[in-house]
Write a structure and sequence with these properties.
Distance between the termini: 60 Å
Helix content: 40-55%
Strand content: 5-15%
Largest sheet: 3 strands, mixed
Shape: elongated
Number of helices: 9
Structural class: alpha+beta
């Protein structure tokens, strides 16, 4: 069942009841159908903030899809969170992030809750959306395979930038501590210099950003400069050692 079909199914179910008392009973039955939530997972970090009752929400990411489990100490609230995870569990993070949760308005749920419960519903929705946003950045195996050639291209671009005092490129010098490319093809680089007081630091950073952003397929580049750990010669590549007349085995 697609996300749209799941939402329409909820709308159709609620339309079968004329009275909200009956709809509340339906929510209670939904809550009873929740899978058991382990007591050891009822921890502070899994509590949804902003709910009048206690609501625990946990999730896992499997094959690019989010799966939710939940529980609450109040029967109506338990039904509400059950309704939400029945719709959104098994969806990709992108599906959830892109959705507007408008089916909640269409069934009149928010309008027929007390102000405190309506606030709790909003907190549940925002928590599910936040989890999806955080996990939308996680790369799937397909993403990793697709990005592999880009890593090679970015490394090649980095090898065109040289240290101002040592005739070796910054990549083989070991100045690049971290290199990541996200789903949007934005590059994040954490790098250092051989010494904190490098007089050409700004120019080198500008060259790194310029070269990387010129790489076909790359949408942007962010650089974080660090001096932890402090650079030393053990970070040199074999190519750099040979270029500097050093023993590559050292």
């Amino acid at each position: 069942m697609t996300l749209q079909e799941a939402k329409q199914s909820v709308i159709d179910e609620f339309s079968m009841f004329d009275e909200w008392l009956d709809k509340y009973e339906y929510l209670i039955e939904l809550g009873k159908g929740l899978a058991p939530f382990p007591e050891e997972k009822k921890t502070e970090d899994r509590l949804i903030k902003g709910c009048q009752s206690r609501v625990w929400l946990d999730y896992s990411l499997q094959d690019g899809q989010l799966f939710f489990t939940a529980d609450s100490d109040a029967i109506i609230t338990k039904g509400i969170i059950s309704l939400l995870i029945n719709v959104y569990s098994g969806r990709t993070p992108q599906e959830i992030v892109s959705d507007d949760f408008s089916f909640v308005e269409q069934i009149g749920l928010r309008q027929n809750l007390s102000p405190t419960r309506a606030g709790g519903l909003a907190s549940m929705i925002e928590t599910i959306r936040k989890i999806a946003q955080d996990n939308d950045k996680v790369l799937t195996p397909e993403d990793v395979k697709e990005l592999a050639p880009l890593y090679d291209s970015v490394i090649l671009a980095l090898k065109q930038v040289y240290d101002p005092e040592i005739p070796v490129n910054i990549y083989d010098l070991g100045l690049i501590y971290e290199l990541n490319i996200d789903k949007s093809r934005h590059v994040f680089i954490k790098m250092t210099f051989t010494a904190p007081n490098c007089p050409m630091a700004d120019e080198v950073l500008e060259d790194v950003k310029h070269n990387v952003e010129l790489t076909p397929g790359i949408t942007g580049c962010s650089i974080e400069l660090t001096f932890e750990p402090v650079w030393d010669q053990s970070m040199l590549s074999d190519e750099a050692r040979i270029a500097l007349g050093m023993d590559p085995e050292m």
